[in-house]
Amino acid sequence: MKVLHADKGKRIVLPSPAKPNSAWVPILVTEKEIRLIAYEPPKSPPPAKGRVVMGKDGWPVWQGEMIMDPVKALNADREEDAGG
Amino acid sequence: MAKYFDSTVAVAAIFPGSTNYADASARLKAAGNDAIIINHGLAEVYRTLTGRLRLPPKAAAQLVEGVLLARFTEAALSRDDYARVVRTMAQKNLSGPIIYDALHAEGARKAGASVVNTYNPDHFKKVAPDLALG
Question: What ipTM is given for this predicted complex?
Fold first, then answer.
């Protein structure tokens, strides 16, 4: 644990959060002690790798990474949208 | 004669690597200019392409335009159509995402489709026993 000290103006200077959308969250431990916890939001998963190409059947298709079966994905998204 | 496609078949026709691709593409080719889907189907496919399947938004839009908009005619559902679907769902004591299948079924009826192409046949048997499934 890193102990922080006040500057001459009695202000505690914190290092800037290292990443965008991160923050320091103050936790009051006792009346004399506050702990600051660095919060970083969960990372969003990277997009699927691939590209749109013209398929052999005459319409564009996705060529590349298929994260999951598309029919199962659609039904799972429906469940999620419905709060299931 | 109009052939209705729900979003499950439409999305399968976008992924040559999926187990359903050969079947979905054969059905879509056989339908020619008679393939129908409801407007909401376009949004559903885009949502899944950019959702669980994590395609970049530009690629997803390109696919929706190149497959859905280019190959399908949209059946537009009105306010009254939605109201009827909601009432029917309640009468059958059905809840949750099966309403999306019911909306597709309503679109198929509205378009006078001879057949509904779907990979959710069990759902359609509940919401649309009057429709022929492909």
Answer: 0.92
For residue B7, list chain A residues with Cβ-Cβ distance below 8 A.
74
CA–CA distances in Å: residue B27 to residues A50, A84, B31, B110, B115: 25, 31, 6, 20, 11
* DSSP structure string for chain A: -PPP-B-TTSPBPPPPPSSTT-EEEEEEEETTEEEEEEE-PPPPPPPPPEEEEE-TTSSEEEEE---S-HHHHHHHHHHHHTT-
Contact: A74, B7; criterion CB under 8 Å: yes
User: Which of A20-29, A62-71, B53-62, B118-127 shows the lowest mean pLDDT across its residues?
Assistant: A20-29
- State in Å, rounded, how far the first CA of chain A is from the last one: 41
Q: Considering only CB atoms, which chain B residues are within 8 Å of A49?
A: none
> Which of B3, B2, A65, B20 minimizes the C-alpha distance to B11?
B20
Question: Global pTM?
Answer: 0.82
Give the gap in angstroms from C-alpha B45 to the nearest C-alpha of chain A: 7
The beta-carbon neighbor of A67 closest among B54, B56, B96 is B54
pLDDT 10s digits, A25-44: 889 999 888 888 888 888 88
